[in-house]
Amino acid sequence: MSMYAMIELDESGHQPLPPEFDPDNQGFVYGQNLGQCRGIDELNAICEAAGVEPIENFLAEDLDEEEMEEFGLDPDEIDEKWSPLEDGVATLKALIAELEKRPADSLIGEHPAEAILWDLRVSLSIPHNAPPDQLFRYVVG
Predict the structure, then answer these.
(1) What does the pLDDT look like over 14-50, one tens digit per residue?
(2) Which of 5, 58, 90, 109 could form a disulfide with 38 if both were Cys (CB 3.0 to 4.6 A apart)?
(3) Range of the domain at 12
C-alpha cells in the first residue's frame, strides 16, 4: 500500500506538488519517501537537537470511518495535529540543514537521505505562498 505525507493547510486543504518540482509535467508526487519512512525517530532526534518541534508532531493519519473502526479509534478522539505554519517551517528547515550535511546515499530508515530531502524541500516550498496565519500539518494516507 502506498502511503504519502502530503501538506495540508487549514484554509486551503491538501497542497499539490509545486510545478517547479515537475517542470516536464511527468506526474511526480511528493511525500512518499517521508510517508513510508521508518526513520521518524531519527528525524525526531534531529529536530530535538535543533530545538524545534519533532516532525511526528505534524503527522496526522487520514483514515476513513471503516479504518478507524478497524483500529478501534473514536473519530472524536483523533488528534488532528494542526500546528502554526511557522513551527512547521522551522522543523523543515532544521531537517534540511542537517540532512544536507550527510552523504546523499546515507539512510534514514530504509530511504536514502537524498529522497527524504526531496520531500522536505518540496514541503518547505509550499508554505512560502501561504498566508502566515494558516495552520499546517502532514496528512499521511
Answers:
(1) 899 999 999 999 999 998 888 788 888 999 999 999 9
(2) 109
(3) 5-140
